[in-house]
From TrEMBL:
Gene Ontology terms: cellular component: cytosol
Catalytic activity: (3Z)-decenoyl-[ACP] + malonyl-[ACP] + H(+) = 3-oxo-(5Z)-dodecenoyl-[ACP] + holo-[ACP] + CO2; a fatty acyl-[ACP] + malonyl-[ACP] + H(+) = a 3-oxoacyl-[ACP] + holo-[ACP] + CO2
Domain Ketosynthase family 3 (KS3): 2-421
Family annotation (PROSITE patterns): KS3_2
Keywords, in A-Z order: Acyltransferase, Cytoplasm, Transferase
Subcellular location: Cytoplasm
Entry protein name: 3-oxoacyl-[acyl-carrier-protein] synthase 1
Domain of life: Bacteria
Family according to the record: Belongs to the thiolase-like superfamily. Beta-ketoacyl-ACP synthases family.
Length: 424
C-alpha cells in the first residue's frame, strides 16, 4: 500500500538568489542571475556569460566547520551543503547530535561533474610529484557521491545515503527516487536534491559544442530566452536545490509545515533510437514519460494547472511544447500555463531539476505563476500549439492546485514529477 508523501522543507543556492527568501523574490521580480564572467573572457570562450551563485565567504562558517573548510575547493559541494542544510532546517529538523544514526532519514542528492577544480588541483600536484600536499579531503571532494556523503554525515542520517547522476534529469530524478523510498515504507524522511559545479572546466565542453549564445556577452540578462523566436542557445549555470520529502504521517506527527504533496511521476529513457540520440530527445519516450507520470499520480491531464518545463532556450523548445500537448491531449486555451526559470538562472545542468522543482513548489506556496523572462517574442511554432496567454511574460496571481515538472537530459533520459497543493 503506497503511503502519501509530502514536502516539508526547501533550500536553494541559485544564480539569482542564495536562500529561499532571495530566490523567491528574484522569481517574483524576474531578476536575473546571469552575469559576464571575466574568467571566460580570459580563456577565449565564445560564450562569456553564465549563471553562478554569489556566495559570501562569511556565510560558509554557518554550514561548515573550520576543519571542513580547510582545503575545500568544490563549488558543487558548497552549493549542495548550503541548499541541503537550509532545507533540513526549513523542515524544522536538526542535525543528529546523538551517537545513534537517524535510521529513518536518508539523503538522495545528485550531481553531474563534482569537484572539478579540486580534481584539476590534484592532477597538477601529482604531476609535480607533490602528492603529499593534496590533503585528506581530495577524495571526498572529487568522488561522485561527495555531496551526499557530506550531507549524510552532517545530518547524521542512517537510511540510504547516495548520489544519482542522470545529466540534466538528475534533480527531478532524485526527488522521484526519494518519493518511492518513502511511499514504499523504507524511510520516513529523505533529503533530495542535486548540485552542479561552476566554472570553465564544466562549461567549456558546451562552448566547444557551439550550443551556447555567443552574441550576448555585453547583455547577459537578455541571453537566455526559453520559448523565444530569437533564442540562440542555453546559458550555462550552476547551483543546487534541495527538498525534504516526508511521509504524511511523520509530518503530521511533528506538526510540520507542508508545502505540497508529491502525487507521483515517471522516469524513462528513449533508448537513443529513432529520433533520439545522446543529445536529442526521443519524442515518443518524452510523451510516454509525461503520460505515465499523470497516470501514476491518479489524476487527469485537464487537472494540471501549470507546467514548469525543461525548456532550455534552444531549437528544441518548440518540440518540447509539442510533446507536452500531445501527451496531455490539450492545446490552445485548454493548455495549462507553462513557464521556464532558465531565463533568469540559465541551465544549471545537473542542478537544474532540483532548483526548478523548488521554484515550482513556491508557485503553490505564493499563489502565482512566475513569468517567462525574455519571451516577449514567443516562437511562432509554439503559438500554433497553445495560446500565447498561457505563456505569461511576468508573474501573475493565480493559485495552481497541480503542477507538472519535467526534465530531459543528455543520454535521452526523462523524468516528470507531479506536485499538488496539500489538502487534508
Amino acid at each position: 500500500m503506497s503511503r502519501r508523501v509530502v514536502i516539508t522543507g526547501l533550500g536553494v543556492c541559485a544564480p539569482n538568489g542564495v536562500g529561499l527568501h532571495d530566490f523567491t523574490e528574484a522569481l517574483h521580480q524576474g531578476k536575473t542571475g546571469i552575469r559576464f564572467q571575466s574568467k571566460l573572457q580570459a580563456l577565449d570562450f565564445g560564450c562569456q556569460i553564465a549563471g553562478e551563485p554569489l556566495i559570501k565567504d562569511n556565510i560558509l562558517s554557518n554550514y561548515f566547520t573550520p576543519l571542513q573548510l580547510r582545503g575545500l575547493n568544490a563549488s558543487g559541494i558548497i552549493y549542495g551543503v548550503i541548499a541541503g542544510k537550509d532545507a533540513w532546517s526549513d523542515a524544522g529538523l536538526f542535525p543528529n547530535s546523538s551517537k545513534v544514526p537517524y535510521w529513518d532519514c536518508g539523503v538522495i542528492f545528485g550531481s553531474g561533474t563534482l569537484g572539478v577544480d579540486k580534481f584539476r588541483e590534484a592532477v597538477y600536484q601529482v604531476d609535480n610529484k607533490d602528492v603529499r600536499r593534496l590533503g585528506s579531503t581530495a577524495v571526498i571532494q572529487t568522488m561522485a557521491s561527495g555531496v551526499s556523503a557530506y550531507l549524510g554525515g552532517m545530518l547524521g542520517c542512517g537510511n540510504q545515503v547516495t548520489t544519482n547522476s542522470s545529466a540534466c534529469t538528475t534533480g527531478t530524478e532524485s526527488i522521484l527516487i526519494a518519493y518511492e523510498r518513502i511511499a514504499s515504507g523504507r524511510a520516513e524522511v529523505m533529503l533530495s536534491g542535486s548540485c552542479s559545479d561552476s566554472g570553465p572546466y564544466v562549461w567549456g565542453g558546451f562552448d566547444a559544442m557551439r550550443i551556447l549564445p555567443w552574441d550576448f556577452n555585453n547583455n547577459p540578462g537578455k541571453a537566455s530566452r526559453p520559448m523565444s523566436a530569437t533564442a540562440t542557445g542555453f546559458v550555462p549555470g550552476s547551483g543546487a536545490g534541495a527538498l525534504v520529502l516526508e511521509s504524511l504521517e511523520s509530518a503530521q506527527k511533528r506538526g510540520a509545515k507542508i508545502y505540497a504533496e508529491v502525487l507521483g511521476g515517471e522516469i524513462n529513457s528513449g533508448g537513443q533510437v529513432g529520433e533520439g540520440s545522446m543529445t536529442a530527445p526521443n519524442s515518443e519516450a518524452v510523451q510516454r514519460c509525461i503520460k505515465k507520470a499523470v497516470k501514476n499520480s491518479g489524476i487527469e491531464s485537464y487537472q494540471i494547472d501549470a507546467i514548469n518545463g525543461h525548456l532550455t532556450a534552444t531549437s528544441k523548445d518548440a518540440l518540447e511544447v509539442t510533446n507536452w500537448s500531445e501527451a496531455l491531449g490539450l492545446s490552445g486555451n485548454q493548455f495549462p500555463y507553462i513557464n521556464s526559470f532558465k531565463g533568469t538562472i540559465g541551465h544549471c545542468l545537473s542542478a537544474a531539476g532540483s532548483i526548478e522543482c523548488v521554484g515550482s513548489i513556491l508557485q503553490l506556496e505564493e499563489g502565482v505563476v512566475f513569468g517567462n523572462v525574455n519571451c516577449e517574442d514567443v516562437h511562432p511554432e509554439i503559438v500554433k500549439i497553445i495560446d500565447e496567454g498561457k505563456i505569461p511574460q511576468k508573474t501573475i496571481p493565480y493559485r495552481p492546485k497541480i503542477i507538472a515538472k519535467a526534465s530531459f537530459g543528455f543520454g535521452d533520459v526523462n523524468a516528470c514529477v507531479i506536485f499538488r497543493a496539500y489538502n487534508n
